[in-house]
Amino acid sequence: MTEFNEEWLQERFDLARGRVYELVHEEKAAQPFRGFFQKEAAFVTLAVEDILLSEEEKAARTLSQWQLRNETLYRDVFPGYYENSYGNPSYACGQLGEYGQAFSFLYAELYGLPAFVAERRIWDVTILLELFLEVYACFTMEELPSPDQVRDILKSYAEDYCQDIVSEHIRAALDPACDFAVKIIREADLSDTRYLYRFGEYIGKNELETAAFLNTMSQQEINALARVFTQGFIKGFEVCRKDLKKKKTVNIRYHLGFERVVRAAILQFEEVGLTPVIYRHALHVQVRPSDMRGGLEGGMPGLQFAYDHRQDDALFLTQEYVRKKLRALQVAYENCQELAAVHAGPAVMETFGEQPFYPSSTPEALVWDEAQKQLHQRLISETGQISNRYIPREERSYTIIAFPTPETGEKYPEVFREIYRVNTLDYEAYRRMQQLLIDQLDTCEWVQIKGRGKNETDMIIHLHPLADPSRQTNFENCLADVNIPLGEVFTSPVLAGTGGILHVGRVYLNGLLFKDLKLVFDCGQVIDYSCANFDSEEENRRYIEDNILFHHPRIALGEFAIGTNTTAYVVAEKYQLQDRMPILIAEKMGPHFAVGDTCYSWEEDHPVYNPDGKEVIARDNEISEMRKEDPALAYFGCHTDITLPYDELGLICTIDDEGEETPLLENGRFVLPGTQELNRPFDE
User: Fold this and answer.
1) What is the pTM of this model?
2) 95, 103, 107: which is closest to 31 by C-alpha?
C-alpha cells in the first residue's frame, strides 16, 4: 500500500468522520436523495464509533449489547427488510430513477465498514468516508450532477485505489504479520462467545451455536477434529511428492464459530513448521469475487443482496481497468515474492447445512455486457498465470474439509458426529475397493453412464489409451488427503468422443440450487443447456451461463469421477440434507462430472502416483494441452462438480473394443465383484 504519513491520515479520517456525523440530520441534500444520505450516514456513524473505543470499553459490552449492535448494522439486508433497502438495486432505482444503480453500488461498498473498523484499518475506512462525502457534496449543489457524473466519481474511486487495494489484499493472504484474526483465536476466552463480535462480521445463529456446541466437546475431541484437517494438508504434500520442508506459511480459511478447532489446527501446523495466515474475505469491489467468498467469513445476513451485487464491477470494467489491475497484481506479487515462495497453500474448512438459496432475478442489478464477460475471463486467466508464477502449483498443495452448521436442524449434534465419521472412514478398505474399480476401468477406453426413471442422463466418456497398463492408470485413487472425505476415483477424459446428456433433478452448486439441470455435451464440451429455476427459458439459460459456464461460449468436461462414499449418501438421506451437502461431500455420493478445468490445472507436468505406484497419466485434455502455446487458451478458471445421485443412476459400465459391457454400478448399487461392501450403508 502507498505509504501515508500517519498523522496526515488520522487528520483525514477525523475530518471525514466528523462531517459524516453531521449528515444524519442535515437537510441540504436534494430530494429524493436526502433519505439515502441520512440513512447511510446513520449506518456509517454506528459502524465507525467502535474505532474510537478502547479494548476495555468494548470488553465491557454484554452479549445482548453486542447482538443488538450487530443486528442493527446488518438488518437492512435481512429478508423482509431488503425489499426497502437501498442495497436492493430494484428499490434504489424505484426511489432514485437513473441514479439508483450507482447509489446501490455505493451502499454495497460502504457495507464493508464494520470489518475495516474491527481491524482498525484507518486507510480503508477513510477512503470510503471520503467517497460517500464526495457523492453527497454533488447533491447539495444548486445544479444536480447527471447520472453519468455520479458513475464517473465511482469509477475514479475504483481506478485510483486499485493498486493499493490489490496490494493489501495479496499481502494479507501471504504475510503472517497480518495477524488480526490469529491474535483473537490465540488469545480470546473462547468459552465466552462475545469474542465472535470482535471480528467485525455478521454473527447469527449458526456462528453462535457452532461455538457453543464446540464448547461442549473435550479438548481431546477438538484435537482429533483438527488432526483430520491438518493431516490431510500434510498428506497432500506426501502423496504428491512435494517438499513441505521448503514452506513456512499455511493459509487457513474458515467460517466463524470454529475457533476452538482452528486454534488446535494452528498449534498442529506449527509442530511441522508452518505459521498460519488468516485473511478476511474480500470486501472492496476491486478484489471482491463474483462467485463466492473465500477466507475468514462470518454469517451471510443477505444472500439476495450478495447475489445482486456479484457483478458490481460492471460499472467500471474496461480494457484499461483490466490492464491496471493486472499491473497491480504483478507489482503486489513482486513486492511479496519472498513470502509467496514459502507459502504452502490453503487449508480450507467449509460449512454447510444452511437452507438452500433460491435467488430472484433483479433486472436493475449491475451486470456485465458481452464485452465485459470476455474481459472478466481474461482477468481470471491472467490472474491465474501471475499467481502461478509466484506460487507454482507444483510446489504447493491444499486441503478441504466440511462440517455442518446448526441450521441443519434439531439433530445438529448428531449430524455433526455423523459427518465426523464420514470424514474419517477406513482408508485401507476404500483404497482396496477403489483400486478394483480402477483396475476394471483401465481395461478399456470407454465408459457409459445412464440415468434411471425420469433421469435422462446418457453419457459416453472417452478415456486415454494406456501405453503401459502395468505402470500407468487413467484414474486417481482419491483418499483422505487434500480432498476430505475420501471416496472417489477420477480422471480427465479425452474430449474427442466424449458426449451425451447429463441430467440432474436437483443439485446445489456454488451455493445455488439448480432444478432439472440438463447439459448436452459434444466432443467433450457443453453445446446446449437448460434448467427449470425460472419461468422463462432466457432467464434459465442466463442463470447457467452466469453460474456454471461463467460466460465461456464453450466449456469442457474437465473431470469424470465415480463417487464411492455411500455412508455420506445415507447420512444425507437420513437427515434430509440431500440439497444442502457441500460439493466436497456431494461429489463422493455418486458419479460426478466437472465442467471447466481438469483437476490438474497448472500442474499437468507434475507426475501423480496412486498408492499402488502406478502413474496417473490422464492429467491433460485437448484444451489444457494448449498451455504449451498460450496459457490463456488452456484454462477456464473454474471447476464445477455436478453429481448424479445414486437414486437417479441406472448404469455405469465399461465398454471394451468388442463392445462387451462390464457393469460397475447398476440401479445405484455397486456390482463389480469385491466392491459390494460399499452397498452396506444402504442396507443398514
Assistant:
1) 0.91
2) 95
